[in-house]
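Re: How this chain folds, sequence and tokenised backbone to follow
How to read it: Take the token row as a discrete description of the fold.
Start of record: The labelled sequence and token lines come straight after this line.
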Amino acid sequence: MNSVSLGDLSQSFLTQKRSVALRDAMAKLTDELSSGKVSDVKDVLAGNHNYLSDLERSMEILQGYSVANSEMSYFTATMQVSLTRVQDFAGQLGLDLILAGGGPVGVIAGSPSENATTQLQGMMNALNSDIAGRSLFAGTATDRPPLASAETLIDALRTVVAGAGGPEDILNAAQNWFADPAGFDTVIYEGSDTALAPFSLSETERVSLDVRANDPAIKDTLLFTSVAALADDPALGLSVSEQSELFEVTGLGLQSNQDGLTDLRSAIGVVEARIEMISVRNEAEETSVEFARNALLLADPFETATELENVQFQLQSLYSVTVRSSQLSLVNFL
């Protein structure tokens, strides 16, 4: 009977080949056990990558919408902060002007016009705020502030009301100028008359937000504040009692206009709530897609650990056999 045996060199090559294969298998299983994912995706998918590609594309789209939601949320939150400042300035100034009027005894104390000028600057600075160089209240003209300076507004309004008579005439002239398209909207408002395009927050959801610095509620706030800032201007020539009357009228106007500013903030609040709802929905969908992807590529930890232990045992056995073979000697058989 013929027999075929392996020479020492062939036996060494076979042992080395087997050792390399076991080490590779152990490295692969160790990686799967630590990462929790299979290392050979092609083997799991059996060559069909369409489903995995679709899942990964959906995740990328949802992550993009997540960024858009965060940006929009920050945008609306900053708008709320700005309008809150405007409303707080206007509310406090309105009370101060009413108290400063003092009724029939004239202006009580302080410098109401100077206070109104300071508050006007604060309001217009708040409305000219931006995030990352993008104006909030300028419509599509996000590259520039929507309003000129408070000094420009006061100077322009001074020219308009200079020829008016008493407080009522001054207020009427100011109101006409603010309502005239060639007045405030041309001289002071530097933003766009076009609203921002709707924001895409999901594949099916679009959110519109149109709050600009030439909104009637904002214009009325600036109107009463700027008129109060001019009440003691020598160019108007008002007596103390007339100044008192103008302070009281503008103060009441600021107080009555609080509802308009509240409506603006409420409109933004509705948009914020909708953004939050869409964001939660997108996050839930992203979690679902990620779960499906992980389920597809997940390596069973118990099965992987069992295979790893088996490979380690085989490798140890191979090393033991190799050591014993290397210790064989003809002397041991004589």
